[in-house]
Amino acid sequence: MPAEVANAIEKNKKLLAEEAEAGKEEGGEEEGKEYHIAGYVAPVDRFTTCEILRHRGGSVVNSGSKDLWQAVLWVTGYYIWKKRNDQVFKNKGDSAVRVFHEIQLRSFEWISRRSKNRNFSWEKWIEIPHRCGEIMGVDQ
């Protein structure tokens, strides 16, 4: 794994831990912050889980990014399912903000570790996620 990816992962794990601690101290989710999940997941007009997991970004992402966005959908589905099970069976709940950040981080990890282009950075992922194929050189 490239050092840049490893450093970004560690940095963001620390940020997640700090946010979780701050959330405990404040008694809830961060106030005043908005998170636009539409920047990370293309609009889906599907009805079954199977159809959603087969969705490849539609017209929102370029052709080279479709496999990458399918990975984001898989990570999203997995973490929503995992957090739901934690809530139901272990009575452990997380805020929507925490789940969002976890999905964001795990998607980045999955895509960057499977990428042949080592120029894919956390900063670019956060700044312009809908262009990840272009960032990674998929369409070039």
Secondary structure layout:
Elements: H1 3-26, H2 49-54, H3 66-90, H4 96-113, H5 122-127, H6 132-135
Description:
The structure is a single chain. This protein has 6 helices and no strands. The chain is mainly α and 140 residues long. The protein has one domain (3-27, 39-135). Helix 1 packs antiparallel against helix 4 and helix 3 (66-90) crosses helix 4 (96-113).
Keyphrases for this structure?
140 residues, mainly alpha, 6 helices, 0% strand, RNA-directed DNA polymerase
- Largest sheet properties: none
How would the global form be characterised? globular
> How confident overall, as mean pLDDT?
69
Helix-strand category:
mainly alpha
Radius of gyration: 16 Å
Number of strands: 0
In percent, how much strand structure appears in the residues? under 5%
Task: Determine the N-to-C terminus distance.
Answer: 23 Å
SSE ordering: HHHHHH
Runs in which pLDDT lies below 50 for 5 or more consecutive residues are 27-31
The oligomeric state is single chain
Number of helices: 6
Please bin the fraction of helical residues: 55-70%
Number of domains: 1
Write a brief structural summary.
By secondary structure, the chain is mainly alpha-helical. It is built from 6 helices and no strands.
